[in-house]
Amino acid sequence: MYKPKILVVEDDPAITNLIRTTLETQDYQYHTAKNGSAALMDAVSYNADVIILDLGLPDMDGVDIIRKVRGWSNVPIIVVSARSEDRDKVEALDAGADDYLTKPFSIDELLARLRVALRRSRTEETDMHSSGSTYTNGALSIDYAAGCAYLDGAEVHLTPIEYKLLCVLARNTGKVLTHNYILKEVWGSALASDTPSLRVFMATLRKKIEKDPSNPQYIQTHIGVGYRMIRK
Ligand code: CA
Fold first, then answer.
1. Does the pLDDT value for residue 11 go beyond 50?
2. pTM here?
């Protein structure tokens, strides 16, 4: 059986050990890098399925590493940040990271994020081999050619903005999207002042696709960060 390969970029030995022990119990393969320049070399040579990246590295800003890696690879990146690096976390997601863990994090949390990231890298591979004109996630589906969304086979009547919003989230299923990213994708610009209107459109979209909008099954809120479409 194939053992997923995880590249761990972290300069704190205690956290590296915690991650290493966790990965060993799950039979993942891993490789560790202690600084940014080693990480960039390993990102090229190790061919990881997922990268776990600490943002505060001795020689380089983690966000720069994400930008460089994104220049040639779509490998899922989970950033690890201290609470004081909250703004960096949002910047990292904007630069193309998939998800984040805030220190201190639990082993269960780490494993759950890893499973999501691995599923995303596998789904992306499958998607490349399918026609890509429809999207299915649980009871929710989108027919991109027709520009329609369906829930349990029944058409959901969405406004153009709601439809665009749904498509952006669907295209990035499993990935945390920042407010900035969504605003840019849907409205073409990202002004912080637009975040409240994003919230309004998200609420109306949820009313249409969630059975219980106060307990959403599809679109998860990340307070102060953004939203994520959950893979059902
Ligand atoms: Ca660090």
1. yes
2. 0.83
